[in-house]
Amino acid sequence: MNSNRTNSNRLFLDIHAIQILPPSNVNRDDTGSPKTAVYGGVTRARVSSQSWKRAMRKYFLNEAEEDMGVRTVHVAKYVSDIIRKKDPSISGKDAFKKAERTLNAAGLPTSKGKAKALFFIGKKQAEELAEATIAGEKDREKLSEILQDNQAIDIALFGRMLAKHIEINEDASAQVAHAISTHGIQAEFDYYNAVDDLRPEDQSGAAMLGNIEFNSSTLYRYANVAVHELVKQLKDKDKAIDTARLFIEAFANSMPTGKLNTFANQTLPQLLMINVRQDRPVSLVTAFENPVKANGGNAEPSIVRLLDEEKKVGKFVKKPVCSLIVTADEEISLPEWAEREDNLSDLLDEFKKTAEKLL
After folding, report:
1. How confident is the model at residue 5 (pLDDT cuts 50, 70, 90)?
2. Span 323-351, average pLDDT
3. Reported pTM
């Protein structure tokens, strides 16, 4: 009985996508090559979680800018600028010194105004720190509380870590997996050259030569959100549900911008599936440990593999409270346990109704 009671207070959101990327290089390594990974003994295309989380945060900015955080080492300058806006009588130099003292007192060490590493601070937190600075607040506990309250949605989702000052750390309520291709890939190279438009007539040849490495792939993408933890962090059930809803939308519609102007790889998922669970989150990447080997495209057999894997993991975990699916191809048949939604908007609305009932 205790176990059931505990599970009833937990709500996990699993998000799965099958997405086609045409020739592209959305996330490259230090040599300029598209990132890869070996999985199932085969080289796969890979897009790092950091890359896609960055794309999702940029998507959030269009929808919830005031609830977003800022990640910077120039945090003292950021707070001092707010101080100056609130009280123009304070000089820029004094505002900077005061902001740095406040941040140090709150538990964030700085050197010459810069944090030792990128620091995630919410806009509302920065506003309150600026007001506390103007009011002359110096109490460490009160200032530290400001950095713990009024969490920005991206800080709550993706977390904040400061190694030696755990009191202002924030655990992430979301996890984003590295996207990998469902099949093996081979590297390809685009040889390009550019001609000088004002080249003298007596000169020939290209003004610039180069190579760009790329690949094409059908990706399996996965992320999850512990919605019950998000409620605790944001201290508002409705806001937490809306944030999880926005997370799904951003997951589906965002795209890392690496070499985007070169390849214009502006694609969307062929399938988006969300599972709402009360026991634990479950990735279905195991569906592709044995790489897909198709005579034609890889998307459809990847979708079949994915849905079949959901049935297999049911031997180990409880059935999802609900499974909602949107597919680009209406001809794809879905299992009896899944509910087909006509579009992403309907899926988001249905998720919200489900979450409101369960939380």
Report:
1. very low
2. 94
3. 0.91
| Direct distance between the N- and C-terminal alpha carbons of the chain, in angstroms, rounded to an integer | 19
Angle at 58 between CA 346 and CA 25, to 5 degrees: 100
Q: At which residue do the structure tokens 């960055």 appear?
A: 54
107 or 263: which carries more pLDDT confidence?
263
What pLDDT digit, counting tens, does each position of 86-105 carry? 999 999 999 999 999 999 99
Residue type, 61: L
Mean pLDDT score, 282-305 = 95
Instruction: Give me the torsion for CA of 273, 276, 281, 284, rounded to 10°.
Output: -20
Q: φ, ψ for residue 41 (rounded to 5)?
A: 75, 10
Q: How far apart are CA 267 and CA 253, in angstroms?
A: 9
- By the 8 A CB rule, do 9 and 204 touch? no
DSSP code for 239: H
What's the rounded Cα separation, in Å, for the pair 275 and 347? 11
- Provide CB contacts within 8 A for 40, sequence distance 6+: 288, 289, 290, 291
Distances (CA, A) of 24 to 56, 109, 186, 269: 19, 41, 13, 16
Contacts 24+ apart (CB under 8 A), 82-86: 82/126, 82/127, 82/129, 82/130, 83/130, 83/133, 83/134, 86/130, 86/131, 86/134
